[in-house]
Design brief:
319 residues, alpha/beta, Rossmann fold, 8-stranded mixed beta sheet, 9 helices, 34% helix, AB_hydrolase_3, Alpha/beta hydrolase, hydrolase, GDXG_lipolytic_enzyme
Length: 319
Amino acid sequence: MNPLFRAVLSLFAAPRVNMREDYEKVRRRQRRLAALPAPRYQASDWQVPSDDGDHRVPARIFSPKKRLRDDVLVFFHGGGWVTGDIESYTPACATMADLTGCTVISVDYRLAPEHPFPAGLQDCFDVARLLLEKPWLAGAPDASKIVLVGDSAGGNLAAVVSLLLRERGQRGATRQIRLYPVAHWDHDPASSPFASVRNHGEDYRLTNAEVQDYFELYVPDPEKRRDRLVAPLMAEDLSGQPRTLLITAELDLLRDEGEAYGRALEAAGNAVQVHRVDGALHGFIALPRFSRSLREAYEVINAFLGDTAAEHPSPQGLP
């Protein structure tokens, strides 16, 4: 990479905060940023009963300005299982609804460290299971129209939810979209098997230290971090998974593990499409709509969802 370009990109590196101590400050900052300026969107809030009946999982339903298809995108947000929520992801979900023409349901799963693994995973599983069993609750004509989507830690949760649905013999999604997902447990540049951890773990949007903090908050027991329900790349059986679109970012430390997971899914007999967005940083799904990285990703997403230029306008043609 051009040294000058590298220096400029380093300005966008993640803040050097101790996530283990400052996660509450990060949450508040994310909400403030998401509210400036206030996004225009059509949405309604919903409460999904948990499977054990002891709490309800909040969700926000985003309607597109123009509905182009019957698919319902069930979205699990990123933030290292520690930050992120309905409010901070509202701009991204409103954009997702408009640029795909789909209803988007954003799941406000419980966060660590207040609720460590597997609390957040269980919330995502409960919502996905309910909507796949009763798709009409989401306004979908049938379960084939329920698409699991997640970015970063949310992409990890989408992967694990799909594994659990198959393992428990329950109806699974037919399609899933994972954006720069967490798939492995080791992000130490000295021991990680992935070059992107060494090449992109210090200077850009997400750092090795930040990922390590997230893991320590989400899964305090180091041995459990190798479990397939935390690091799905460790799963011994990846058969029977939904048709998958996996999008990675070139300058993201998670790039190689995400692409490795895509290859592992394909080797297990699943239909997989992997697309790398060149020049993109981690978290680009939250960028403004004029972002090249965002536009490229939605071109690929719309094609995956069955969109064609003859039937619907391209993302560039949407407001």
